[in-house]
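Lab manual, section 2.4: Encoding a predicted structure.

Procedure: take the sequence of the chain (313 residues), apply the prediction step described in section 2.3, and record the output as structure tokens. A sample record is shown.
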Amino acid sequence: MDVLNYTLKRILQMIPVFLIVTVLIFVLIRAIPGDPAMVLLGEKATPESLAALREKLGLNESYITQFFLYLKGIVTFDLGDSIKFKAPVSQLILSRVGTTICLTAMSTFFTVIFSFIPGYIAGIKKDKIPDQIVRFIALVGLSVPSFWIGLVLLTAFAVKIKIFPVSGWGNTPWEHFVGLILPSITQAIAVSAVLIRNLRNNVVDIKNSDYVDYARSKGISPLRISTHHIIRNALIPTTTLLSLKLIAMFGGSIVIENVFNLPGIGALLVNSIYARDYAVVQGIVIMFVIVVMVINLLTDIIYSILDPRVKLS
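Recorded output:
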């Protein structure tokens, strides 16, 4: 019941935040230089055709009228039609969002694998050889740009060895899975480097804490101390950091999807910005805002599960 009440309360708090964000989206997208009608028809278009298209797109209306039409579309789940792709915005987003969600989910999986075990080992073996090796690898991961890692992985495993496809993600579920491996690892490497350092420092602090020493003095087994005292408490701040990085990975898919030529939301957003396709850009940004708010809500709930002292209120 506490979770349900807290969730409803947070949803009510999200409403004014969402309204403020919609205003910012509307203003900023129209601050981008360029005429959508000119972009769509080309520089050789006649003034008559430009005027007709502006009338059709509602660009001749005042900004106040355009905003209320835009707000009405959000409330009625009608995000309008794309002027570039000649299709409903909601349909375009639904056709692309699956790729981005799969990419983010697989990147999160690899991030957990790459960071949690090495971070714990580095913290337990503080200042020893395993710790130094893990810290060196994490430093390299922090120093190298993600797009460069992606290009190296493509060259090594797609061009030279030819294990993975060079671009795209195929047509079958298996081809989708294989096509997402290199992009997911590319995203996971940079994020894992941050999480490793964070988890390692948490483990070092908790390992030397008074309640862990007290647990050892009571004769509790090392395995139980590790699982119930060190790991669980070390994961609390790391979980918060992981949720922030999850949001960053979802938004950062723009670069990865363009490097690996994936048909996701990121590539759609870039193409829509170039085309001054207001409806598509607004729809994608709104979707990002909703995803961020939902992830923050789930993080708070998970935080309360990991730490019983945290009460949902």
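Check your result against the sample. The mean pLDDT is 81.
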